[in-house]
Design goal:
The chain is mainly alpha-helical and 99 residues long. It has one domain (2-90). The chain contains 5 helices and no strands. The longest helix has 30 residues, at 53-82. The two termini are 36 Å apart. The mean pLDDT is 87.
């Protein structure tokens, strides 16, 4: 299992240190912590139902199923089963935004 942990660490370091983008350093914290995210998501769903026709409704149903099953049943259970600390906490010398 050591090779898997080493691969995981190297992938994190690659994305964190090599793909630094000043634009995303501004945009992503705004998007991830924005109080308007869920209302905009709801508005997008309403627009899909209203203007998207049958394809929009099928897409919305499939997206809700994938998110519900993928996040609710798989990701959260695995997260709590393994209880690994966040990579930026345990890996030294990572690019971390300070606010």
């Amino acid at each position: 299992m050591h090779w898997l942990e080493a691969l995981d660490t190297e992938l994190f370091r690659f994305f964190n240190l090599r793909l630094i983008n000043p634009g995303f350093d501004v945009v992503m914290p705004f998007v991830s912590g924005n109080v308007f995210f869920y209302p905009l998501l709801l508005l997008a769903g309403v627009l899909l139902v209203w203007k998207g026709g049958a394809r929009g409704r099928v897409f919305l149903v499939m997206a809700l199923l994938v998110l519900g099953i993928g996040d609710g049943l798989v990701c959260r259970n695995l997260k709590h089963a393994f209880e690994r600390p966040r990579p930026f906490v345990v890996i030294p010398d990572v690019h971390r935004l300070s606010f």
